[in-house]
Design brief:
four-stranded mixed sheet; 8 helices
């Protein structure tokens, strides 16, 4: 492999705990009210209650909904290399310098481009151009017509659920900041990170 280029993306730092808790609790509250009313769960509107990720396409979501899809796994924030001759993507256990290795989220998401100019911004229109995105990633799964994994914070109401399910890279990486040269990341190749973690 003579010629490679780096692929990296930083994670999001929205208030995940707030939005995922509201979503999960809202679902329970709606069902609870339905059970206490005449007819109970026979109410058609309540029976058809569906969360936003089931009713909207990615490009139809507002900014808060879009950001809440990030499960905080940290997988997209790892350094990858692409062989420019074969297009093979080589994953490593080296994380972007801005990744918090405990929370698995970006330490300066709003200003990340100033520190990491080659950070790739994900949007509804470039997902299919990023085949190296984790198979468990909510953005990728919804783009492919799949549902959110059972461990996703929007389902559980708990931002720690991806960690508990063993999906994240917490405690499994080193920061690029400690490397002498960027290419030293190739000493930490980890093809096991390509495995689909959707089932936890």
């Amino acid at each position: 492999m003579d010629t490679v280029r780096r692929l990296t993306m930083t994670g999001r730092t929205h208030d995940l705990r707030l939005i995922c808790t509201i979503t999960a609790v809202l679902g329970r509250a709606v069902l609870g009210r339905a059970a206490s009313r005449p007819g109970g769960f026979g109410n058609e509107r309540l029976r058809n209650f569906r969360p936003f990720w089931e009713t909207k396409r990615l490009h139809e979501m507002n900014a808060r909904e879009w950001e809440s899809l990030c499960d905080g796994c940290g997988l997209c924030c790892l350094i990858r290399f692409e062989d420019e001759e074969t297009s093979e993507v080589i994953p490593t256990r080296v994380s972007c310098q801005l990744l918090d290795q405990i929370t698995c989220r970006c330490k300066d998401y709003a200003n990340r481009k100033a520190t990491v100019p080659d950070c790739i911004k994900l949007d509804p229109y470039n997902i299919d151009k990023l085949p190296w995105m984790p198979r468990s990633c909510a953005y990728r799964r919804l783009h492919e017509g799949k549902d959110l994994p059972a461990w996703h914070p929007l389902r559980t109401g708990d931002p720690e659920s991806p960690h508990a399910a063993g999906v994240t890279v917490r405690g499994q990486t080193i920061s690029e900041a400690v490397l002498a040269e960027p290419e030293d990341a190739l000493d930490f190749i980890a093809f096991d990170l390509l495995a689909d973690r959707s089932e936890g």
